[in-house]
Design a protein that fits this description.
Number of helices of chain A: 7
Radius of gyration of chain B: 21 Å
Radius of gyration of chain A: 17 Å
Number of strands of chain A: 0
Number of strands of chain B: 0
Shape of chain A: globular
Helix content of chain B: over 70%
Oligomer: heterodimer
Order of helices and strands of chain B: HHHHHHHH
Number of domains of chain A: 1
Distance between the termini of chain B: 70 Å
Order of helices and strands of chain A: HHHHHHH
Strand content of chain B: under 5%
Largest sheet of chain A: none
Largest interface: A-B, 70 and 74 residues
Structural class of chain A: mainly alpha
Distance between the termini of chain A: 43 Å
Chain lengths: ~120, ~150
């Protein structure tokens, strides 16, 4: 059942993105930035946590989960250290994604040439 | 007569059909990436005996690895131009934008090429994500007390 929910939720988010892309002048860069902000906004009221609990992987794959993980790490540290904690914990949960993307990009950029 | 013919030609090339088709393709591919994510989470948590939370980190690293690799090998661009938002909205789009920028600008040197341009496209996601997460986190601290 969780697979069906994963499919529907991830597909639904991509569907909204595609509809925005086709019907407005916004580029994919605009859309991903907006979706990250939406993810952070939804987690302000713990709505995205609820979605993750029900949907599982399907909610963690779209870029909205990036915003959710950013604010989640920040609030976790903020509960111990107050306002400075917001800055300390910002990248706690997204560090793995950003680090792996940088490292893989560096390695692949060394060994592969652009295809034209 | 000229006007009628023109209208006919316009009607046959109207993009409404392709928009619905694009949306459907994005829905199916995005959904499939979500299912793959859930499959990987269960695969890792079952085989490596780790919690679901740790397994989801493993899943994201795996997806980023394959998106970067396929971008470097050259055929991920074709998939993206077919599925559009179906592959750009998931975390694969983040990895794709970084790897394609890295490979594209590497010839301009390691510092001003690769180093300066690696976040050319992904930088906006990080910037607006961090600023909005900081702002909403501040609001939540002030209003709800954390």
């Amino acid at each position: 059942m969780i697979y069906l929910y994963s499919f529907l939720f991830a597909g639904f988010v991509c569907l909204i993105g595609q509809l925005i892309l086709d019907n407005t002048k916004l580029t994919p860069g605009h859309i991903t930035s907006i979706f990250v902000i939406v993810g952070a906004f939804l987690d302000t009221f713990s709505i995205y946590d609820m979605i993750v609990a029900h949907v599982g992987g399907g909610a963690l794959v779209p870029i909205t989960s990036f915003g959710h993980l950013l604010i989640h790490g920040a609030l976790e540290k903020a509960s111990d250290f107050g306002f400075i904690g917001l800055v300390m914990g910002m990248f706690d949960l997204t560090a793995s994604g950003i680090t792996s993307a940088i490292v893989f990009t560096f390695i692949f950029a060394l060994f592969f040439k652009p295809k034209d | 007569m000229e006007k009628k013919m023109y209208d006919n030609i316009v009607n046959t090339h109207k993009p409404t059909e392709t928009r619905a088709q694009n949306a459907f393709i994005a829905f199916v591919t995005g959904g499939l990436v979500g299912v793959i994510g859930q499959l990987l989470i269960e695969f890792y948590s079952y085989n490596l005996d780790i919690s679901t939370k740790d397994a989801s980190v493993f899943m994201i690293v795996t997806l980023i690895f394959f998106a970067s690799l396929f971008t470097a090998l050259g055929f991920f661009d074709k998939w993206v131009s077919f599925a559009r938002c179906g592959l750009l909205i998931p975390i694969t789009g983040f990895a794709h934008s970084m790897t394609s920028a890295g490979i594209e600008y590497r010839k301009e040197g390691p510092i001003f090429g690769l180093g300066s341009n690696i976040f050319k496209l992904a930088g906006s996601v990080i910037l607006y994500g961090v600023v909005s997460a900081w702002f909403f986190g501040l609001l939540r601290l002030l209003i709800m007390g954390g």
